[in-house]
Design brief:
This protein is mostly helical. It contains 14 helices and four strands. The longest helix has 29 residues, at 69-97.
């Protein structure tokens, strides 16, 4: 679904995005599939290789970082038609016919089932505080929250924080790579695509249980829940945007930046002070009568060398 990846920083904290690479014929969700599918192995190696190369590229040369824009826009139009015909009506029916309490329980349960992957990525990022909070949420919600359907932990001051391997790669220093629009699944980039693939490997619900019994219902519930959250937001965005495609691209990147930095973002560079030397002082110093501006920073405002300027979060 194209819009599972729109901004939770600008929309709501519920938005999450899952990609099932089996849509493209990759049986990568199962280790046994990797052993028996040379095509899958080749595609994975190529995907990872592209990611490594893209990590050396600078996005600053092209702020949009969308070299495949023409193709992406075509796919975006296709996705929009599918969304208008299928996903939006289903989400609207879900909102109209399912009580708020039950929809909230579904939302909480979907997040609860993501706990193993969130914990693993907390550890890989070296975020031990986050890992501890994730374990606490799992125990509290699992025991007192009716199997995760009630978010007791959030009410106690331990909110849900999404983590995935795409964020882990960003913490490790990989750049996002080119922007991509995937049929049905929506916006992503090279780094997040690799991250989703790795998450599919490691997700116990994708590898250790019957997909028809648990994994597929979870994905469907996640998709419907997310699209339902975005009904009004996307309608307003499409109606007010001069370029809907560019708006979606921008919001996707903002959401990912917010998730990677845990909402902290980069520290702004202080504005320099601008002052003019006194004319008499200049004459006394033997300088010309022309007033020359002196631009500089106060000592306490000078940016420190080596300050963090990447998306890598501060721990």
């Amino acid at each position: 679904m194209q819009y599972l990846a729109i901004l939770d920083s600008c929309v709501c904290s519920r938005i999450s995005r899952r990609v099932d690479w089996e849509f493209f014929g990759l049986k990568a969700c199962h280790f046994s599939g990797l052993k028996s599918s040379p095509i899958a192995r080749s595609l994975i190696c190529a995907f990872v290789g592209i990611s490594l190369v893209s990590g050396c590229a600078s996005v600053e040369d092209d702020p949009a970082n969308d070299p495949f824009e023409e193709v992406n826009r075509t796919i975006f139009d296709f996705n929009n038609e599918i969304d208008n015909s299928v996903f939006e009506p289903v989400a609207q029916a879900y909102v109209d016919n399912v009580p708020d309490t039950l929809r909230l329980a579904v939302h909480n349960a979907v997040n609860f089932l993501k706990t193993p992957m969130i914990f693993a990525n907390n550890v890989l990022q070296g975020n031990l505080d986050g890992a501890g909070n994730t374990v606490s949420r799992f125990l509290v919600n699992g025991i007192t929250g009716f199997g995760g359907t009630v978010d007791v932990a959030a009410d106690s001051g331990v909110p849900y924080v999404k983590e995935d391997f795409g964020q882990t790669l960003a913490v490790w220093g990989f750049s996002e790579g080119p922007y991509l629009m995937i049929p049905i699944l929506g916006p992503t980039n090279i780094r997040d695509g690799v991250g989703t693939l790795v998450d599919s490997f490691l997700d116990p619900l994708s590898t250790e249980v019957d997909k028809a019994a648990v994994d597929w219902p979870r994905r469907v519930a996640d998709g419907v829940d997310t699209r339902a959250d975005l009904l009004d937001v996307l309608d307003d965005l499409e109606r007010t945007s001069l370029d809907y495609y560019a708006a979606i691209r921008s919001l996707y990147r903002q959401r990912r930046t917010d998730e990677i930095t845990n909402g902290e973002g980069d520290a702004p560079v202080p504005v320099p002070n601008i002052s003019f030397d006194d004319e008499d002082d200049k004459k006394a110093a033997g300088q010309s009568d022309e007033l020359k501006p002196v631009i500089g920073f106060d000592d306490e405002e000078k940016p420190k060398l080596g300050a963090q300027t990447s998306l890598k979060r501060t721990r």
